[in-house]
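Bump. Still looking for valine--tRNA ligase structure tokens.
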Amino acid sequence: MAYELDLPKNGKIHNFDVEDSISNLCLSEQWVVTKLHELIDSVTSSYERFYYGEVGRAIYDFFWSEFADWYIECSKTRFIRKEDTSTIVCAQAVLLYVFENILKLLHPFMPYVTEELWQALPARNSALIVAEWPKILLPRDAKAVEKFENLQALIRAIRNARAEYSVEPAQRISATIVAAPEIQDYICKEKTVLAALSRLDIENLHFTHIPPEHAKLAVHLIVREGLEAYLPITDMIDVSTEIKRVSKRLAKLQSEYDAHTKSLTSPNKCADRPKSLQAAQGAIGTSGTKVRGGREKPIRRKERKNWLTAERDACGTSGPKRREPAEPGEKGSDSPKQNGTSGTNGREPTGSPEINTRSTEQNGTKGRAGRGSPKKPKANKIAPRVIGQMRDKEAHFGRIGGFCPKRFGTSGTKRREGRERAGRPAD
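Sorry for the wait, here they are.
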């Protein structure tokens, strides 16, 4: 059944810029219009401060989490239940009012898509890009928001209970709502929304001030202060089927437990373990050395500590060895008198002990105060293979008289001998 809207020439159905226009709406419409007016203020302020990320997040959250998930689903009950024409037309007006304002807010982000959707709306004679920006500081109803949030919490609680007991989505169950008089008044008016979104049997949906007689055989849901719900357990599950399911799972868990216990107490596995672990197994009734998270059990940590202590005792120290300072007369001492320097400023001497213990007279240098030890000659670290190759090249170039003493480190005597062998006069 379709309902045509009597649209004025400007395309506007209702004007929600006064308090009376909101107070005359149903609870769902009051809630969504109030949330839209709050969104307009927030988005406009963020646009002025160039907080485009906040704008996108706010519009996205409102469009999907509030408008699409809740109000559109609530508005469907107006058409499915075939309520009076005024209620249906009011729901259509709110849907159009909210959607066109969302397009205006989204137009800076999505100009082409929003323009196409705008032109598809009824009675659009101008483009969206030249449309008037939504006004700010529009009226809102905070009490309506609080009331609808109580309705949302009740619907969520019933949905969670259905999911916990694995109730089929198509199965409708009965419910008894226990609420204070002021809460019961507005929830009872929205019982069609409650029954549709919670999959309840509207004919067996009751409202009362005291718990029902079958309270002990029902699932008790405490939603908020002054708002509770009782769902009969017989409507949610088949008792005999549930007993079979639970018994089958219990038998499976018991068999797994017996298998693990048998494996842990097997003599073949216990014989391969150290005696200390076998003793620990008998004391604590387990054979593992690790627990969840990789943490070692106390018996394992104690063995490791004892092993480390034995290792330190064997080395004769409780920690890493430290280099003891040499006596003034010993070889390798860094004494200024022994090394012929003014001190090494606490640094360890480098190089071989023979080089470090040479005096300044042997090195042909004089110690200078404040500059540390004199430069020490480097030890010859050339590999024997390289020395052999140098000797071969020396003999080759010596025969032709082209040997370079600076490159290969040979003396001038070998150079002269090479020239004589080649028939050239010596230098």
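The radius of gyration is 46 Å.

Edit: fixed formatting.
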